[in-house]
């Protein structure tokens, strides 16, 4: 159905329907007539066509490293809630932890002239930074902090220090760390450094931290924990870079006869659903992923609005760090 058909059924001009759809000025009588016909016919405006006519897009791209994780789903919920209220469509890209695919999505979303892009960052390569510096499309990165792009990120180092402090305060001194690749500066490097900070505070030698690097799955958490145990080290405290890894580590420990927390304490980072579905429930540090999505979407909308009202100028780059909170459960 076309605009002129809606106009004929409502008994108004096509221009009146166009103004209605685009939020323009129209009498209350005409507005109610058009609204009634649209509801009766189930008419859905062609957003893409309208965007081209207006020479701007009403769609925003969101690129995530994978879709099967608590942090990603919470971030997407936060982004979607803000964007939908503002009349924007959200186009998702799942990079599958593939850096090339991630860059392909960034280039594609810029080429089709989306209004803006939100990237849930993991590893920011020189190619990413080059894209940020050259792109005319407003971009916000979630989960990483880099001076070349506006970012909403977590206090990963302090969050890891907090959970490690808590484990150490329970008298645990033989610590192991199940971490991730350290090209990922936030989750991989900073969280490990936070654990080492807590060890120094407790007059422990961080070089004695037994650690491993794995991918972000339950199976990888089990693999990493089993690798530590197979190497002959029996920890009395285990800190994991994410809750998902912690669930895997707990599974491996219990399968090998360790009691949690009697024999070994286990702590995670994230605060998502994963830590609540295992027994004993996981002690963790909650990061505010939903809020990061909300803030990223709000910041991006401000950047888009500013560029539209200031002849293509850009807002100064913004870097916002979110906090965390300790969740005491039964695994420590």
Shape: elongated
CA(first)-CA(last) distance:
62 Å
Q: Please give the domain count.
A: 3
Averaged pLDDT: 91
Biggest sheet, in brief?
A: 6 strands, parallel
Order of neighbouring strands in the sheet with most strands: 2-1-3-4-5-11
CATH superfamily of the largest domain: Response regulator
Task: Please state the second-level CATH architecture of the largest domain.
Answer: 3-Layer(aba) Sandwich
The tally of helices reads: 12
Q: What's the CATH topology label of the largest domain?
A: Rossmann fold
Tell me the β content: 15-25%
Number of E-state strands: 12
Helix content: 40-55%
Query: What's the CATH class label of the largest domain?
Result: Alpha Beta
From the alpha-carbon coordinates, what is the Rg to the nearest angstrom? 25 Å
Low-confidence stretches: 51-55
Q: Label the structural class.
A: alpha/beta
Please characterize this protein's 3D structure.
This protein has 332 residues and is α/β, with parallel strands linked by helices. It folds into three domains: 3-45, no CATH class; 59-154 and 289-323, Response regulator (Rossmann fold), CATH 3.40.50.2300; 156-287, 3-Layer(aba) Sandwich (Rossmann fold). 46% of the residues lie in helices and 18% in strands. It has helices at 3-10, 14-21, 28-41, 47-53, 70-85, 99-111, 126-134, 156-169, 185-201, 218-230, 243-255, 289-309; strands at 59-64, 89-94, 116-120, 139-142, 150-154, 175-180, 210-214, 237-240, 265-270, 283-287, 319-322, 324-327. A six-stranded parallel sheet has the order 2-1-3-4-5-11, sandwiched between helices. Helix 5 (70-85) links the parallel strand 1 and strand 2. Helix 10 packs across helix 11. The protein is elongated. The protein starts with a helix and ends in a 5-residue tail after the last strand.
């Amino acid at each position: 159905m076309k605009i002129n058909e809606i106009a004929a059924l409502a008994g108004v001009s096509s221009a009146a329907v166009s103004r209605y759809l685009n939020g323009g000025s129209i009498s209350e009588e005409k507005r109610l007539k058009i609204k009634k016909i649209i509801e009766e016919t189930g008419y859905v405006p062609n957003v893409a066509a309208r965007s081209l006519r207006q020479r701007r897009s009403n769609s925003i791209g969101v690129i995530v490293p994978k879709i099967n994780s608590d942090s990603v789903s919470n971030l997407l919920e936060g982004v979607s809630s803000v964007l939908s209220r503002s009349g924007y469509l959200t186009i998702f890209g799942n990079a599958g932890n593939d850096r090339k695919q991630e860059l392909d999505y960034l280039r594609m979303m810029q080429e089709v002239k989306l209004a803006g892009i939100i990237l849930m960052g993991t590893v920011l390569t020189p190619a990413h930074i080059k894209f940020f510096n050259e792109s005319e499309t407003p971009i916000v990165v979630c989960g990483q902090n880099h001076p070349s792009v506006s970012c909403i990120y977590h206090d990963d180092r302090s969050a890891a220090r907090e959970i490690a402090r808590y484990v150490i305060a329970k008298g645990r001194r033989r610590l192991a760390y199940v971490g991730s690749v350290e090209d990922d500066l936030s989750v991989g490097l900073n969280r490990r450094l936070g654990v080492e900070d807590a060890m120094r505070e407790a007059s422990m030698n961080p070089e004695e931290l037994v650690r491993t690097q794995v991918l972000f799955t339950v199976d990888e958490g089990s693999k990493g924990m089993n690798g530590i145990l197979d190497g002959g080290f029996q920890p009395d405290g285990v800190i994991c870079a994410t809750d998902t890894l912690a669930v895997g580590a707990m599974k491996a420990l219990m399968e090998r006869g360790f009691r949690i927390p009697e024999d070994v304490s286990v702590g995670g980072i994230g605060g998502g659903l994963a830590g609540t579905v295992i027994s004993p429930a996981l002690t963790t540090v909650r990061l505010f992923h939903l809020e990061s999505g909300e803030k990223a979407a709000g910041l991006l909308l401000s950047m888009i609005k500013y560029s539209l009202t200031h002849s293509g100028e850009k807002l100064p780059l913004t870097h916002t760090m979110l906090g965390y909170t300790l969740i005491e459960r039964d695994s420590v």
